[in-house]
Amino acid sequence: MRVYTRTGDKGETSLWGGLRVSKADLQVEAYGTVDEASSFLGLARGFVRSQRARELLPELQKKLQILASELASTPEGLLKLKERLQEEDIRRLEEAIDGIQESLPPQTGFVLPGGTPGTGALDVARTVVRRAERLAVRLRQERRLREEIVRYLNRLSDLLYVLARAEANEELVQMVKEKVLERLGSTPKTLTLEIARRLIAAAQRRAGELGLPVVAAVVDAAGHLIALERQEGALIASIDIAWKKAYTAATLKMPTHALAQLAQPGQPLFGIEATNEGRVVIFGGGFPLVSGDQVMGAVGVSGGTVEQDMDVAQAAVKVWEEEP
């Protein structure tokens, strides 16, 4: 079925009841404006954060469809309508207005429309409903039109006004929450001795699962040693290696296995292990401890294969990431 019919090409349309009228007719302008208002309510549904608004807007759109049907009908067509707006519908709008107003702070002056996508869409919808109300008043002066139509549009514009103000409050609350969470999230965790010991304990538990004695070291962001433990049976040489892995990961702000790839012949960091008085190592087992976008320190593990050292060190990193 085609969307276009070509029946309106001469600037006329049919009312519900069969009468052909100009598209510039006041009756057509009135129900067309109601349709415009409903479309803006649909736009608002995609933007609002308020749960109350999300629940109300679809119901309001359905009522506007009923109202538009009456505006688009001839006297004969009105007799065929299955549903019309009633006094009860107006009362429900008033109840909704009163309920929302109770949750709003006192208004001390004029309010500028918009400010957020949700409030802006609601404010535009409100002004379109006001225009529909003015057209309905003119239509009532010229032709027969139930008073309930004008009254419903009047209350609806009032409801959209308070909904927009409630949405602005909701947006403000959400913005404050997001700012607080952002501030909390941007505060880096502190790498204390107590936490360092917990990281080492986590590494030792994982090493025990692998049947592997290791040395685990934790350093601060400058590579200074915070804690180091050597399990019984771990190689003496692993003491220096674990510390240097942690130092490398902290000061270069990357895992040591990632550095190893960059330090291969032909790569940009080839030969870096010869710097820093030999404290830089280029094999896996060292990981930076990151909070937000800051490196707070690092953990280094030595005692097994490269893959085992990385596995054990990552157990410590996981505990760090779970720290509040």
Please give a structural write-up.
By secondary structure, the protein is an alpha+beta fold. The chain folds into 2 domains: 12-185, Cobalamin adenosyltransferase-like (Hypothetical Protein Ta1238, Chain: A); 193-322, 2-Layer Sandwich (Beta-Lactamase), CATH 3.30.450.150. Helix content is 57%, strand content 10%. The chain has 10 helices and 6 strands, in the order ββαααααααββααββα. The protein has helices at residues 26-45, 51-71, 75-78, 87-102, 117-142, 147-186, 193-209, 237-252, 256-262, 306-322; strands spanning 12-14, 20-22, 215-220, 225-230, 286-291, 294-302. It has a 4-stranded antiparallel beta sheet with strand order 4-3-6-5. The longest helix is centred in the middle third of the chain and has 40 residues, at 147-186. The radius of gyration is 35 Å and the shape is elongated.
